[in-house]
Amino acid sequence: MADKYDVIVIGAGPGGYVAAIRAAQLGLKTACVEKWVNKEGKTVHGGTCLNVGCIPSKALLETSHKFVETRDHYDEIGIEVGELKPNVAKMLEFKEKVIAKNVGGISALFKANGVTALEGTGKVVGNKQVEVTGHDGDKATYEADNIVIAAGSVPVEIPPAPLTEDLIVDSTGALEFTEVPERLGVIGAGVIGLELGSVWKRLGSQVTMLEALDTFLPMVDKDVAKETQKLLKKQGLDIKLGARVTGAEVKGKEVVVKYSDGSGEQEQTFDKLIVCVGRRPYTKGVVAEGVGVELDERGFIHVDDQCRTSVPGIYAIGDCVRGLMLAHKASEEGVMVADIIAGHKAEMNYDAVPSVIYTSPEVAWVGLTEQDAKAKGIEVKTGSFPFAANGRALANNAPEGLAKIVADAETDRILGMHIVSQHAGELIAQGVIALEFGSSAEDLALTCYAHPSTSEAIHEAALAVDGHAIHMANRKKRK
């Protein structure tokens, strides 16, 4: 029998590595199992997020955005540049450097905090036992008083469009294109599809997005979704709603996609096709039969509000449990679970988890949409403010978008904040804090904001909730 630990974490993604570090900081003997191997055959930490998801996609989003900004908008503000062209090879090289710095940072944090890194595939084989199969096939069994399953998720594959190397790819493959495809198809106009479609559209692709739903971004407040769709269409993204893909056939170096929409059966040819229809929990084989950990029909591990499974001492966090599949949600769950294991009282406010789409402009939201609130029978009042009336946004040459606040009509309590703008992913933190502290719209309205700043749009939206916005015509009169 190998070493015994207080805590063994399976998976070193944003949920797992944070849980392991937090547990070690609290004085618990901790190990973290990771099977991810990079191109050089070395075990790396960080999971999907750092290796093939959040971080590398943002590197390409930022570089492609800088390219378009330089090419199309610098002249507007008095900066003249010569002929530009994207260097995809260097962009990919930059992306790999960003990945290396991030995953290397986690390994350093493990060492600094005394977390034992176990290399291989982890499997719960008993309520206090984890079997680790090394990359060489050798097996070792470890005991732990507590086990945290943080196995993450993988892209969903669909039968009509089976993955074909370098032609029909998932989100991982879409980050590896070595040249800009002339015609790019994207199945799914959700968060991942919009981000990847934006990257390659900026670099020169003709991008067509096929979305089966009739509604664009249904999880986003309608006003923000409508504005976002308008802005992305203006950028040249061809977003086809109600387009259900029925087949994809590889013909030479092209992909012929068949889909049905309101006009009947359609066909379109692409040089590359990205499948972005969501993700599913990676739980198959993570827990041996007979252990007692319950899964639902979709493969998610059943947990309570504090991420306890049906077996005492076994927890599960992140993408393999209910809730939003977001790295920061997983990280906070990891902290909560580690605190609980250490004997502290801890909980997580799932009503204050922000979401961000890193297009340009960015889309961010937290809490209830106006539509969600009304569906719950809550009478609401709302306030919106356009960034076109914000001095800093105009000075930044980024006047697109709006900020919207949803508040309870009776109590004035802020229920949600929704933004589409430059740096919306940063601005939304104000909404998260407001929800965490139970702020009213008046609280934000009475707050002194720095001028000039794009944050002032949030201030004005809060003022607009009661018709008191300063820098726009008001429909209501101050009482």
User: Do you know the CATH architecture of the largest domain?
Assistant: 3-Layer(bba) Sandwich
**CATH homologous superfamily identity of the largest domain:** FAD/NAD(P)-binding domain
Strands, total number: 22
CATH class of the largest domain: Alpha Beta
CATH topology call of the largest domain: FAD/NAD(P)-binding domain
Biggest β-sheet strands, sense, barrel: 7 strands, mixed
Portion in beta strands: 25-35%
Give the tally of structural domains: 3
**End-to-end gap:** 74 Å
Estimate the mean pLDDT confidence: 96
Spatial extent as radius of gyration: 24 Å
Helix percent reads: 25-40%
Q: Which term fits the overall shape?
A: globular
* Count of alpha and pi helical runs: 13
The helix-and-strand class reads alpha/beta
Low-confidence stretches: none
InterPro entries: Class-I_Pyr_Nuc-Dis_Oxidored, FAD/NAD-bd_sf, FAD/NAD-binding_dom, FAD/NAD-linked_Rdtase_dimer_sf, Lipoamide_DH, Pyr_nuc-diS_OxRdtase, Pyr_nucl-diS_OxRdtase_dimer, Pyr_OxRdtase_I_AS
Keywords: Cytoplasm, Disulfide bond, FAD, Flavoprotein, NAD, Nucleotide-binding, Oxidoreductase, Redox-active center
Family: Belongs to the class-I pyridine nucleotide-disulfide oxidoreductase family.
Main location: cytoplasm
Give a verbal description of the structure.
It catalyses: N(6)-[(R)-dihydrolipoyl]-L-lysyl-[protein] + NAD(+) = N(6)-[(R)-lipoyl]-L-lysyl-[protein] + NADH + H(+). Its EC number is 1.8.1.4. The structure is a single chain. The protein is of the alpha/beta class. The protein folds into 3 domains: 4-155 and 280-348, FAD/NAD(P)-binding domain (3-Layer(bba) Sandwich); 168-277, 3-Layer(bba) Sandwich (FAD/NAD(P)-binding domain), CATH 3.50.50.60; 353-464, FAD/NAD-linked reductase, C-terminal dimerisation domain (Enolase-like, domain 1), CATH 3.30.390. Helix content is 29%, strand content 25%. The strands form 5 sheets. Strands 1, 2, 3, 4, 5, 6 and 17 form a 7-stranded mixed β-sheet that branches. A 5-stranded parallel β-sheet has the order 8-15-9-10-11, covered by helices on one side. The mean pLDDT is 96.
